[in-house]
Design a protein that fits this description.
Elements: H1 11-61, H2 71-75, H3 108-118, E1 150-157, E2 161-168, H4 183-193, E3 208-211, E4 221-222, E5 229-230, E6 241-245
Antiparallel strand pairs: 1-2, 2-6, 3-6, 4-5
């Protein structure tokens, strides 16, 4: 009579399995890192593209998009949107792309993207209005960013400079912006395009600035002005909102 015996994995076989699992995990992690790095490079690329579009608009219409006082003369009903007459897309012409303007109708930071698209200088279509699901909605009233769950917005800085800001694509306030990058990621973008200093408050020589953002953990940077430095030891994406200064 033959007796059957059950044998388990040998130590060698278990070791091989563990090595294979480790290689798979390492490969997934490396792949995710490569995707993230590509997305970070996309931030600089997007900024350059939108900056060119903005300058082209200024040259063609002698006004900033969103702030343009006669946009309805060019685009008529296409410029109105669901809840506004065509004249509702006109800005106040003060050379600042603001969250609201004196005519009480246009919200220039959203109308700016609509104007750029109507002028054929950016891809996509944008409503020019506050989203029904929140203030910002990537793909609806502002462009989506290359980083997951991010979107581009115009921002008016207190130093009288317009800027682009990368924020959450479901932002719910026009006065602050959600952090979307780790300090190390923000630093990588900053040092590539500018000086790597996070808090120069958009001084004339500063192109890229960062902030803790609305609802952030307050860990984007330490210090202020020229003495400010990114907090590179903080590794969470609620570290920094990033801003790109534009010419007056």
């Amino acid at each position: 009579m033959q007796i059957k015996t059950n044998t388990g994995f040998t130590l060698l076989e278990l070791s091989i399995v563990i090595v294979i699992i480790g290689l798979i995990v390492a490969g997934i992690s490396a792949g995710q890192s490569l995707v993230r790095q590509a997305s970070l490079r996309g931030i600089a690329s997007d900024f350059s593209q939108y900056k060119v579009a903005l300058n082209s608009f200024k040259l063609q219409y002698d006004a900033w998009p969103g702030d343009m006082v006669n946009a309805s003369d060019y685009w008529g009903a296409a410029c109105g949107g669901a809840s506004a007459a065509p004249t509702g897309c006109n800005g106040n012409g003060n050379k600042l792309i603001q969250a609201s303007v004196s005519n009480g109708v246009a919200i220039e930071e959203f109308r700016a993207w609509q104007h750029l698209a109507l002028a054929g200088l950016t891809s996509g279509t944008y409503t020019g209005e506050i989203s029904s699901g929140g203030l910002f909605n990537g793909g609806e009233n502002v462009p989506r960013g290359s980083i997951p769950n991010s979107a581009w917005s115009f921002r008016y800085a207190s130093s009288n400079h317009n800027s682009f800001t990368l924020t959450s694509d479901s932002e719910t306030t026009s006065t602050s912006f959600d952090p979307i990058l780790t300090p190390a990621e923000s630093y990588a973008v900053d040092v590539k395009l500018d000086n790597g200093i996070p808090n120069m408050t958009f001084s004339p020589q500063d192109l890229v600035s960062a902030s803790n953002g609305f609802g952030g953990a307050g860990n984007c940077y330490t210090g202020s002005g020229l003495s400010s430095v990114y907090n590179l030891s903080y590794t969470e994406t609620d570290g920094c909102a990033i801003h790109f200064r534009l010419p007056k």
